Amino acid sequence: MRINKLLHTLFVIIPGVLLVTFFMYPCPPEKARPEKNWQLNYPESWPEPVYKFDKNNKLTKAGFELGRTLFYDRRLSRNNTISCGSCHQQFAAFAHLDHPTSHGIESKLGTRNTPPLFNLNWQPAFFWDGSVNHIEVQPISPMQNPVEMDEKLENAVNKVAGDTMYKRLFKTAYGDEKINSQRLLKALAQFMGMMVSCNSKYDKVMRKEIGVEFTASETNGLSIFRSICSSCHKEPLFTDFSYRNTGLMPKFKTDSGRATITKQSGDLYKFKVPSLRNLKYTWPYMHDGRFNELEQVLEHYAGDKFKTATLDPAMHLRLYLTATEKADLLAFLNTLNDEEFVKDVRFKDNSGNPVLSDHSHSFEKR
Questions:
Q1: CA distance 361 to 286
Q2: What is the number of alpha carbons within 13 Å of residue 116 lying toward its C-beta?
Q3: I need a labelling partner for 292 at 20 to 30 A (CA). Which of 21, 194, 208, 337 fits?
Q4: What is the three-class DSSP state of 76?
Q5: In contact, 275 and 95? CB cutoff 8 Å
Q6: pLDDT tens-digit series, residues 163-213
Q7: pTM for the whole thing?
């Protein structure tokens, strides 16, 4: 009798435990998944990405890991001191924390703020002026810029080609040890293209995840945002990728913005509309990093603008918000911060290189 009761108990309890375990852990860990499942994931409501891996750069775990190694390799700079990751730091959503403008080789400074790196596959062009229109060639610009990494692509490839470790990594990723600029750039595109930020509170509310709701302040902030900001900062990426003159007095007279590329007077002082995601991590703000606080950005839009012929029509109007409305708008913008992204172990620097002292700053906002 006791044996029958024991058997009955086992047949009832064990299947229940297995069922609960299955729903708690519906998928095996990432490292246990087969290679064919290594893919770009993003919300169904998002638009199709501009850059698609399946066309000419098949996404693989080996290719991604090769790109990560290259991203953090200082040998891609002229004097082997600066990597892509030196100025694109994960804890800053791959921007450069506390640096108004780019801070590169031999402590040289540029004239523009280092843009964060996330959701790059949706961008039709890169940099503040849109000077590059393809993610696979985007790294060439900072690599060869004299105040950033200051290295010729050919030299960087030669350094990599002489390393036994890279021969192994390239063979794993591409099937043989051939190392050239095309493969190097495609691997970097795989690593950077996988930097998808879509797990902020805003995203979870939009997905109607259980237990995640906006506060009353955040809800009002969303309403304010959609009425005055969304024409340029379009959901869900929070940019329309256009170039606009927002009325900032030029900090660097030689920087004419988009006109530097197009040579058109109608593009004078126009810069790309940045995404508003991860603002908590990507300060200082604006193309020249002049503002440390979001409140300063709002004050700019509420105040007088530097008036030129190319000033965006929306900038002719002042932004009038009450103190409560400002607080609500800022509360909503705070829901766009994706803590999971800045802590995602897939993008972690595994190179073992310590952070250079002239690139090391406090994580706390002043």
A1: 20
A2: 30
A3: 194
A4: helix
A5: no
A6: 999 999 999 999 999 999 999 999 999 999 999 999 999 999 999 999 999
A7: 0.86
**CATH superfamily label, 53-196:** Cytochrome c-like domain (1.10.760.10)
CATH of 201-340, one of 3.40.50.720, 3.20.20.150, 1.10.760.10, 2.60.120.10: 1.10.760.10
DSSP 285: B
- Give which of 165, 143, 146 is closest to 154, Cα–Cα: 143
> Judging by beta carbons within 10 Å of its beta carbon (0-12, 13-18, 19+), is residue 53 exposed, middle or buried?
buried
Q: Please give the structure tokens belonging to residue 276.
A: 């508003």
Q: Among all chains, which residue has been given the structure tokens 């126009």?
A: 270
Distance CA 138, CA 160 (A): 19
Tokens describing residue 71: 């991203």
The whole-angstrom separation of Cα 67 and Cα 244 is 33
Name, in order, each residue with C-beta under 8 angstroms of 94's C-beta and a sequence gap of 6 or more.
88, 116, 117, 118, 195, 347
pLDDT band at 263 (very low <50, low <70, confident <90, very high): very high
What's the pLDDT score for residue 350?
A: 84
Q: Which residue shows structure tokens 């250079």?
A: 356
Residue 345, token pair as written in the block: 């172990």
Q: Where in the chain is the domain with CATH 1.10.760.10?
A: 53-196, 201-340
* Paired tokens of 99: 């640096």
| Closest to 95 (Cα-Cα) out of 341, 299, 294 | 341
Mean pLDDT over the full length of the chain: 88
| Sequence-distant (≥ 6) Cβ neighbours of residue 11 within 8 angstroms | none
The residue among 149, 155, 65 whose CA lies nearest residue 114 is 149
